[in-house]
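Budget justification aside, the reviewers requested a transparent look at the raw inputs and outputs of the sequence design task funded under Objective 1. We therefore reproduce one unedited record. The lines immediately below are the structure tokens for a 328-residue chain.
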């Protein structure tokens, strides 16, 4: 049972949907971030619910996290760092979160991706026991994070890592490969699509992911493990663009970006250059098995792509209206 939770990285795409799901279930929630104005904007979009409180601080400082999380049963660690800062900052941030949780005796749910798995062996969905053999720098640092997270030195806390594939949804931002693509299509602008547009890949709709993450967090037996958070199947970039254009009423061009284009953009936007080593996932994508989740928590929520992409586009188009609220 969770009476109170805190969400780190509250104003990010994943943090926002986790907060909405926690509040929907009547769980008191602390939104933690660096900027009070951004937190206040988030609260307004959520309708300023009575169960939500706002706390500012530095996620790299264990004392800040400790003070803000007092009384919390679970800390959702959905804060992230840009690709080009990952090697230097991912582990120090994780260490601070775990130190605070260890002192508090609070559980931790860490939101992560699939990079530690490395290349796929075949096209079959992989389960949580799939060997982790990362061949990229980001995959290796993510695996170091997992080892740190599950270290026996954190004897005062329990944790789980929830692993998401690429994701999309109204709250998805630049941290999502697809987020900026759908934002541009919704706005009727020229859009870019990262990677191969012909190969079907797995994407999870963020509101579905939030349901699964909170459902697992409520279960004592789920801690101490990795968990897959699968999507609603696979879909190609071309099909995503078709659905998005129809929903937006737009016919603007969408340009696929490969290694050369990303490297060129990387001269001006450092994070773009860092995506190049991950392009293997757009050519030989991994797909996650939800069998373990289903055994413990029931059916995987799976909003059809046509419905989820259309809802995302319409929500993005309405974003200019400051009074639009995120439904709980």
């Amino acid at each position: 049972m969770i009476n109170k939770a805190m969400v780190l990285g509250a104003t990010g795409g994943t943090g926002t949907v986790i907060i909405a799901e926690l509040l929907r279930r009547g769980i008191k929630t602390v939104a933690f971030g660096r900027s009070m104005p951004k937190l206040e904007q988030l609260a307004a979009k959520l309708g300023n619910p009575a169960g939500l409180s706002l706390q500012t601080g530095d996620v790299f400082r264990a004392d800040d996290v400790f003070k803000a999380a007092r009384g919390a049963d679970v800390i959702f660690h959905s804060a992230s760092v840009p690709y080009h800062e990952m090697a230097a900052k991912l582990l120090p941030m994780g260490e601070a979160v775990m130190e605070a949780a260890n002192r508090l005796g609070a559980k931790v749910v860490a939101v992560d991706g699939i990079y530690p798995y490395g290349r796929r062996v075949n096209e079959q969905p992989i389960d949580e026991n799939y060997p982790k053999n990362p061949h990229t720098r980001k995959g290796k640092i993510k695996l170091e994070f997992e080892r740190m997270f599950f270290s026996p030195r954190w004897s005062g806390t329990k944790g789980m890592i929830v692993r998401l594939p690429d994701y999309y949804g109204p709250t998805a931002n630049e941290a999502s490969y697809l987020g900026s693509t759908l934002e541009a299509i919704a706005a009727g602008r020229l859009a870019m699509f990262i990677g191969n547009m012909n190969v079907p890949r797995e994407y999870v709709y963020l509101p579905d992911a939030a349901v699964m993450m909170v459902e697992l967090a409520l279960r004592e037996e789920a801690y101490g493990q990795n968990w897959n958070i699968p999507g609603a199947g696979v879909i190609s970039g071309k099909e995503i663009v078709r659905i998005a254009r129809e929903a937006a009423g737009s016919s603007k061009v969408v340009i696929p970006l490969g290694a050369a284009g990303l490297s060129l953009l990387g001269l001006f936007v450092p994070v773009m250059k860092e995506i190049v080593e991950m392009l293997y996932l757009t050519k030989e994508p991994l797909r996650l098995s939800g069998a373990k989740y289903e055994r413990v928590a029931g059916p995987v929520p799976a909003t059809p792509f046509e419905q989820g992409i259309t809802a995302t586009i319409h929500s993005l188009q309405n974003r200019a209206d400051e009074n639009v609220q995120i439904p709980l």
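The chain has a mean pLDDT of 91. The radius of gyration is 19 Å. Computational costs for records of this kind are itemized in the attached budget.
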